[in-house]
Amino acid sequence: MNAAYWVNAFGMQPHPEGGYYAETYRSSELLPKAGLPDRFSGSRSVSTAIYFLLESHHVSALHRIQSDEVWHFYAGGPLEVFVIEPATGNLSIIRLGADPDQGEVFQAVVPAGSWFGSKPAAGTAYSLVGCTVAPGFDFADFELAKPEEMLQQFPQHRAVIELLS
Fold it and tell me: Which residues form the signal peptide (predicted)?
């Protein structure tokens, strides 16, 4: 199986941050704004989930959302998720995949408000993963990083910022 197989099998569409996606779940129940932290501008679904596929020539551009995001590995080769913690500037690299001996994990969490982006690991044709977000994803909570601002704030991560911008 190749990337085109998965894109067609799941009816995936181009994702604004790069790659392809298909929303597979959106809770019918809503959390009211009054029950959410102040960073949310309105009510949100309890949870959402997507399939997300990146090919070797794709990157998921640096961005952040207002919810925790759980990543799940499904198929293809490993995916590297680069996470910059905004308060400390610490960079961590999560390697999603099926080989724990190579430091790969099936699941990982990107905390709310963290800057993050991803790309298939070197030598990987494609990575098929899933992302589960709670409270549910809403484009009102999505912020694409501005490279010039990121470079001013995190100059020590120039290579990653340039790679994922």
Answer: none
Measured CA to CA in angstroms, residue 20 lies from 27, 129, 155, 157 at distances of 21, 11, 30, 26
End-to-end CA distance of the chain: 29
According to the 3-state scheme, what is the secondary structure of 50-78?
EEEEEECCCCEEEEECCCEEEEEEEEECC
- How do the pLDDT tens digits run along the chain, 165 residues long? 999 999 999 999 999 878 999 999 999 999 999 999 999 999 999 999 999 999 999 999 999 999 999 999 999 999 999 999 999 999 999 999 999 999 999 999 999 999 999 999 999 999 999 999 999 999 999 999 999 999 999 999 999 999 999
The Cα–Cα gap between 132 and 80 comes to: 17
What's the rounded Cα separation, in Å, for the pair 58 and 67? Answer: 24
- Rounded to two decimals, the pTM is 0.95
DSSP letter at 47? -
Domain 3-164 classification at class level: mainly beta
Distances, alpha carbon 160 to alpha carbons 46, 135, 143, in Å:
32, 28, 17
